Amino acid sequence: MFSKILVANRGEIAVRIIRACREMGIQSVAVYSEADAESLHLKLADEQVCIGPPISAKSYLNIDSIIQAAKETGAEAIHPGYGYLAEKEEFAKACADSGIVFIGPTPHNLSLAGDKIAGKKVVAAAGVPVIPSSPGGVDDIAVARLIAVDIGYPVMIKSSGGGGGRGIRVCSDEATLSEEFSIAKSEAGAAFGNSTVYLEKYIVQPRHIEFQILADRSGDVIHLGERECTIQRRYQKLIEEAPSPGLTPELRQEMGLAAIKAAKALNYFNAGTVEFLLDKNNDFYFIEINSRIQVEHPVTELTTGIDLVREQIRLAYGELLGYTYEELNIRGWAIECRINAENPAMNFMPSPGKIVSYRPPGGFGVRLDTHLYEGYELPIYYDSLIAKLITFDLTREGAIRIMRRALAEFDVSPLKTTISLYSQVMDDADFQKGNFDTSYIEKFIPDDDDDDDDDDE
Ligand code: ADP
Ligand code: ADP
Ligand code: MG
How far apart are CA 94 and CA 85, in angstroms? Predict the structure, then answer.
């Protein structure tokens, strides 16, 4: 096994990975920006290296500085977490060029996952249903109009290199398409360094269902069941659960096999997630593969008992899976709330600051993944995710009951957070019945404006 791993990330996911290293007897190296000198991940790691100024482009996205830190400390492998460099082909290649193992998929996997149009083509060719879309990138508004008529309105403009729910626009008719098209292109260029956009059929009020995949060097691929990620705001996930209350056992099996087919078609290696949309007729469509550990991975860990970060490390070292889907013992129900330092009453404005009073929830069925502690001051430079609260019980009703209780215990004064919104959701009859689609959260925030692009990260 590796003897030392560098963790190229910050926040709760850096803490999560460092904990896995400690349990596996692996030394960990934390990297940090000048704004993160008081961060919890530094206190838990064996070594700490400052990699640059607060601004992410010069620290957590600085490939040279991270590779140099790995060389100086003698780390044999780098775990990138999620976001930042996790899905950058260039970074995986830079690791390989320096003789460092990148804990994640191959550079080829990353290039296909990062180019959504190319990835969809490979998956469609393998016989997995994909959403009707333009055959490739669309440059010209006249061509866009013709394709939209062919697909049928409403359509979505998506950015080929996009992610994190950004760069997505819904067009209900030709007038909106004409209006949004050039804006979408220039925004995609500015945000993702790739101005390619494409059109896709807009699936009305779908559910977002995704499957966790693990693949080893021998080409063996298994899935660990699905996650329901339908509760979203502006195409970003807020609440996730496993299993999904919207699937029958037959549909679960069919979608799981399609997920494996997609992963095999992409020659996928290590941990990944195959994302689908499910429409009102129970037809499902592949949307993308996420080639990293995901924010919502803990719900799968709780229902399978498998430590996904440990599996990523093991697989990256070259070990084989060693178990089959049939040998998994999937049981119970897990729910995760992504807690953000944002004010729901002020259009989710980020609310950083110093934590004066900190009381984390605990007790039966509660897991809290966080980098917070009393007295910690949240830097203004980074993502507003401050904690993931995950509850588990044998039944969905039980997991909801525990979540309601745990949310009520959680105190991070004086920060404004999304905790209150989640308490409302847990009390809502539709949520309790599992009766929702991706527009569900709008009823709690009626004034939310979908078209007002979210570029606050
Ligand atoms: P998940 O798919 O794991 O639920 P998200 O899609 O919300 O999580 O992305 C995880 C993190 O990565 C978020 O912090 C998000 O802002 C960031 N992220 C995802 N894609 C991109 C991208 N293309 N550019 C920049 N940040 C991204
Ligand atoms: P990202 O890379 O930003 O995660 P995705 O393609 O995974 O982008 O889509 C994010 C979310 O946007 C989905 O979970 C879904 O809610 C919505 N979405 C994406 N494509 C469609 C579509 N064709 N029809 C309806 N909703 C969609
Ligand atoms: Mg996605």
Answer: 11
Kindly identify the ligand whose nearest atom is closest to the C-alpha of 169: 2
Q: What is the pLDDT of residue 161?
A: 83
Residues 6+ apart with CB under 8 A from 279: 203, 204, 206, 285
Q: Read off the pLDDT of residues 397-417 as tens digits, 9 standing for 90 and up.
A: 999 999 999 999 999 999 999
Contact 79, 60 (CB under 8 A): no
Angle at CA of residue 320, ends 318 and 323, nearest 5°: 160
Among 229, 235, 239, 273, which is best to mutate for testing ligand 2, by the most ligand atoms less than 8 A from CB?
Answer: 235
State residue 12's pLDDT score: 98
Mean pLDDT over residues 64-93, rounded? 98
Q: Which atom of ligand 1 is nearest to the CA of 229?
A: 4
Residues contacting 81, CB < 8 A, separation 6+: 7, 8, 9, 13, 14, 17, 292, 293
Mean pLDDT of 76-102: 98
Tell me what pLDDT residue 450 has: 52
> Are 400 and 432 in contact, with CB atoms under 8 Å apart?
yes
Please indicate whether residue 208, judged by its CB atom, sits closer than 6 Å to ligand 2: yes
Identify the residue whose tokens are 């009520």.
408
Across the chain, mean pLDDT equals: 95
Confirm if 171 and 157 have CB atoms less than 8 A apart: yes
> In 36-64, which positions are buried (b, 16+ CB within 10 angstroms) versus exposed (e)?
beebbbbebbebbbbbbeeebeebbbbee
Superfamily of domain 207-443: ATP-grasp fold, B domain (3.30.470.20)
The CATH T-level fold of domain 4-103 is Rossmann fold (3.40.50)
Q: Is the pTM of this model over 0.90?
A: yes
**CA nearest to 313, candidates 26, 44, 113:** 26
Nearest protein Cα to ligand 2, atom 22: 202
Domain at 132-201: CATH architecture:
2-Layer Sandwich (3.30)
**CB contact at 8 A, 330 and 271:** no
The domain locations on the chain are 4-103, 132-201, 207-443
| Residue 424: per-residue pLDDT | 98
* Ligand 1 pocket: which of 12, 61, 82 to mutate (most atoms within 8 A of CB): 82
Q: What is the pLDDT of residues 2-57, one digit of tens each?
A: 999 999 999 999 999 999 999 999 999 999 999 999 999 999 999 999 999 999 99
